[in-house]
Amino acid sequence: MSFLGRFVKSAAFAAAALGLAAGAAQAEKKDLTIAYVEWSDAVVATNVVKTALEEKGYKVKIVPLSGAAMWQAVATGEADAMVAAWLPATHAAYYAKLKDKVVDLGPNVTGAKIGWAVPTYVDIASIEDIKKDPSKFGGKVIGIDPGAGLMKASEKAIKEYDLPVKLIEGSDATMVAALKDAYAKKEPIVITTWTPHWMFAEWDLKYLADPKGVFGGEETVNTVVSTKLKDEAPEAYKILDGFKLSLDDEQKVMVENNKPGADPAATAKAWVAANKDKVDAWSK
């Protein structure tokens, strides 16, 4: 074989090798991490989308974090996605700081809201009414995890309404436990809360009016992904982009999750199996 022939053959092999390497580099990523906050609605949405992705061949790890850490994980690429971004108000500070480092795919749930609520047997209608007799509520408002957007808004509400009350830090679970105990005794209680949440199906509750608009209006819960996901896992990106749940669907699954011995992964799988048309639409 002539030198030229050997050169052409070697170049062909090199080109083929480079082509294979490029193909390997472009192979779709199949291991995904989804960050979430352990709120009832986020547990549902995260497990449902995890199941949908797993049915498409992905291996999905879900990681519970605080709200701030959840946003940071997606921004750094440690997590590929989250389906628990409350916008435009509750997570406004996180979004303002990290919006250039993430991709907001828009709402997966609409009609969400945050605020304070009381059982319907409590005879007040507005946040302002708490000031008339704060001792009725033990001088406190029962909160959730410190640093949550809802807690920051609640701190602002206490200042704006000049309320002589203390905001009690805890978690979704401890807030619900306090509500359950007070409700059983028909005692007054003020809780920080949000929709969607299964507690509204469990007990008769009412939001307190917020004439100063501290808690904002209707919100959406958005899907936010890493800037690399579209290139690394385009099919997963498409599913996450199409992911949608109605308030009714999400709250029904929340109720199932609240039953004794319930497993959120199992209830999510049951919902996905029973709602194939909705799930299939996410990837179209």
Automatic annotation (TrEMBL):
Task: Specify the signal sequence span.
Answer: 1-27
InterPro entries per the UniProt record, alphabetical: ABC_Gly_betaine_transp_sub-bd (IPR007210)
Glycoprotein as UniProt keyword: no
SUPFAM superfamilies per the record? Answer: Periplasmic binding protein-like II
Subcellular localization, as worded in the UniProt entry = Cell membrane
Q: Which UniProt keywords apply?
A: Cell membrane, Membrane, Signal, Transport
Residue span(s) of domain ABC-type glycine betaine transport system substrate-binding: 30-273
A Pfam family for this UniProt protein? OpuAC
- In the UniProt record, does the keyword Signal occur? yes
Protein's name according to its UniProt entry? Glycine betaine ABC transporter substrate-binding protein
